[in-house]
Amino acid sequence: MSPAPHSLLIHSQIQEVHGSACLIDSDCPVDNLNHIGNGANTGKCIIQPGMSNGTCEIYSWCPLENDTLPLGSEHFMFPMVENFTLLIKNDVTFRKFNVHRRNIQHWVSKRFLRTCHYDKDHPEYKHCPIFKFSTMFKEANIDHSALIHGGVIGIDINWDCDLDWDKKYCVPEYKFSRLDDPDAPIGRGFNFRYAYYYYVDGVLHRDLIKAYGIRFQIHSTGTAGKFHILPLTMNIGSGIALLGLAPVICDIIILNLVGSKKIYQKAKFETIAEEQQLIAARRECKVKPGDLPKSSKKKKKVSTESDSHSQEHPESNANITPSGDQNVVP
């Protein structure tokens, strides 16, 4: 924390600000604002004794802000900050299951809270909601540079609950990480400014404070699940449908797209004798599919009847002459 008491006075702009140098008053337009300056021009050029160039006079709080660390860039401003503690209270509600949980467990007593510090490897202290800064620095792999320029630490609280078990097993897990860039060339760490305004002998004064510190950003997420018969039946039905459809899809692919589809056809389908005859007849005679079976069956039936007739009457052969005389052959 770097406080600086200021009063509202007229002050010359610093030489480092581009456009603030001047030789005469006309070089400093009245009420002109420089976006990197510290105030509006009064219209006067102030030349210090022994200097050839001057700077434009401005309306500003005096003295101007000195943006340097009070102890330098290598010394800790708060060497005992590692022993500071942070208490986190976090609640989560799973409305679908009507379950409400908080990170302070129901069995925790006041005595436990006064003495515990979070330790992820301890069976009881891993449920402690009080965190030492040193523990968070260690979990986030933060070195002592955060104690000089400040920093931003992210705390992730994750609730992953299986509500088929007792809800006492629904407890959070903590993870820590550094969110700012510790190697940034400019604007490193974390700081902010705020001011106090007051009057002394009727004159308005301001104390501008540039505070360096640790900023915590807490992010809480949660998921919960519980057994239900409806998703189970839907998954079983989908699996059965998929298993029934899989052979059909495989047959379509193999019978039409694979190079060895003829081999698969012979192995999968069995051609009966009648169909083989039809196929052979189509190739030879090129007749219609409905004509060949009927005609072939008739021919086969007639030949069979004639054969049987000849076998039943072996002695009925006769020679008939044109004149009608019959000669019986013995």
TrEMBL record:
The keyword Cytoplasm does not apply. It is a multi-pass membrane protein. It holds the Pfam family P2X_receptor. Keywords: Cell membrane, Disulfide bond, Glycoprotein, Ion channel, Ion transport, Ligand-gated ion channel, Membrane, Transmembrane, Transmembrane helix, Transport. Its main location: membrane. It comes from the Eukaryota. It is found in: Cell membrane. Belongs to the P2X receptor family. This is p2X purinoceptor 5. The lineage of its organism: Eukaryota, Metazoa, Spiralia, Lophotrochozoa, Platyhelminthes.
